[in-house]
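Exercise: predict the fold of this chain.
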Amino acid sequence: MATKKSKHIITSVKKKKRVRSSKKQPTKIKFTTIDPDLTEIHVNGRKIGFVKRKTSSFKWDMSALFAPLTEDEPFLKRSYDSDIEAGRELSRIFFRYKEVLKSRLGVDVNDFYYSDMFQNMGF
């Protein structure tokens, strides 16, 4: 039999779960065709990599502009049937990368993104 205090704890946990699930940001993936065999992939306004078509097999390979996780290497080496399919998989790899870095470092990963790293340095 549940007491008044345990009911209160259960309802507060349910409310917290609802709040956490509503924080998820919508993802916008943009495909920019450079030439018929090369496509740039942008996620939420950031360029994350390229997708290139092999001329021999007409399959698509991807290359990331970030350091992917070791467990994602098989996905990067795999060939895909279309540039859309490869770009979506590249965006999934990028979000896993961001989540792992955020959990390890405790800060937002956008501060450590490669394109922003050397902006304020005078060369």
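Check your answer against the key: Residues 65 and 118 are 15 Å apart (CA to CA).
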